[in-house]
Design goal:
Shape: globular
Structural class: mainly alpha
Distance between the termini: 37 Å
Largest sheet: none
Oligomer: single chain
Order of helices and strands: HHHHHH
Strand content: under 5%
Radius of gyration: 12 Å
């Protein structure tokens, strides 16, 4: 699997949902996903933010790193982002 290509598909929202699972597997296999945080948070595209949250949920550890940015998304006017953020916070935000 070409993890760079999979990552590009996720960030460009050019995929059917499977790419999210593939990217999570890339991460588990050692692929560096540190750029996901920056790319996800610098995007104005609601789909990319939602996909980024989904990927973060799939790979758990990334959620904890992103908590400071995810907390404000719980107040997002977009219902999908708000729901995803609240769901992640309910599981991972123990502070």
């Amino acid at each position: 699997m070409d993890c760079d290509e999979t990552y590009r598909k996720v960030i460009d929202a050019d995929h059917e949902g499977y790419a999210l699972f593939d990217l999570a597997q890339c991460f588990l296999d050692g692929y560096d996903l540190s750029k996901l945080r920056k790319d996800m948070l610098s995007s104005d595209d609601v789909g990319i933010v939602s996909d980024g949250l989904f990927v973060a949920a799939e790979i758990g550890g990334l959620v904890v790193q992103c908590l400071p940015e995810i907390r404000p998304l719980a107040e997002s006017p977009d219902p999908d982002i708000r729901k995803s953020a609240i769901s992640l916070l309910s599981v991972y935000d123990k502070a």
